[in-house]
Request: fold
Amino acid sequence: MKFIHRTAGPAALALALAGGGVLAARAVTQTAGGPLQAQASAMVPNQDEWSVFAWSMDRNQPLFAINADQAMIPASNNKVYTAVWALAVLGPDYRFPTDVLITGPVQDGVLRGAVVVRGSGDPAFGYPEYDKDPMTTPRAMAAALQRMGVRVVEGGVIADPTIHDRQNYGPDWPRDTGNGASRYAPTVSGLPFNRNMLWVRMTPGQEPGFVREPEVPEIPVINTARGGPRAYAVRKPDEDTIRIRGGGTGRFGVGAYEPAYLAGGAMRQALREAGIEVRGPLRIGQTPEGSVLVHRHLSIPLVEMIPQLNRHSDNFFAEHLWKAAVARSLGQGTYVGGGAASAVFFHNQAGVAWGELWQADGSGLSAQNRSSAQALVRALVFAHKQPWSQPFHESMAIAGDPGGTMRRMFVGGPAQGNLHAKTGYINDVRTLSGYVKTAGGENVVFSFLYNGRNTSGARGVQTNLGNLLAGYTR
Reply:
């Protein structure tokens, strides 16, 4: 999708979208009263449950506003901030490195030390969508050691996730995530692998009745299956033990509580497949000083990951890109410091007023996240003006398009195939923020945030507002 870029007039934009601060923000919302204000207000019931803002980027004027500076829970509209921040501070061409190092010399085929796998938080490492076999990259790493003549590793394998803190799931995540056990929101790590899922494949009639993929005995699996129509695997929120229940056959994924074990276990498995004996244990820790780099794997470019956030609303990718942006800003990816670092970035770069944005996590799963509609509009206008604007626009879901999260929205209306945006929902939250071209050819950025019980009705209101903008002619 092509999106037309037009130069903004400096006077209005300086006040509205570059100044920052609460006074400048309120000055914008109080000017709203354009030709669509009355129509939009009539479409929005229970207005205290809404924060709404639509802004013409061509005229540098608000088209309508309802509580535009009121901070709400944004749900997955929070991913807009994550995508923009990551693109701005890391760059669209950034590739996450995952390194293999050795901690000692190689003497007569024996590595007198350990093999280290050091991560930078690459969510695509071992990811099936990019590598059909997650073991492809660990095998390439093992081959590098094989070429060095290594036949024995005395010191085992060290998995180093310390680019991030050890808080492996976000604050105040919904209970159904199981603190990172679920597939839709698995754990977060500085050394992720295969979506941080341990896969358990049932093998009825064979002891112990299952196979781990990868083979990581450091993550306990207890088989309590006693027959029945189907088997399934679960773990409790605060432990790594996975329990198989039910019966039958199948392959089941569970988010690992200590996900760095997965990458380390995959490395050890690849070494053994290559005929390299690993004598020492697998452990999690920081790379020892003096370690020597022997192989570096680089991820796909960051810009190719952005559709995972905006079009597909992937929580796993969002959390890792957000923590990477935090790490670039603070030196370590941390939930504790990330919210403040994000607020400072968007205040300084996009003019978001203090108090209108707080990122408790990168995905929007946390109920502690806050954003006003005006803050999201400012972030989207900032993104529109950047060199990476075109791929950012193209990363959004398109109204009525089956390839994204708006496949069932705006079908048959004037916004279909035109409006492109980020959807969001958790309990009692429905949000939609993005871009649309009016029938008169005007480029508009908007944000419709709803917090309340009538979430099904809220989607209808957002559809009406989007179609109002799409059908507008001056």
In short: Residues 10-91+303-470 form a domain with the Beta-lactamase fold (CATH 3.40.710.10).
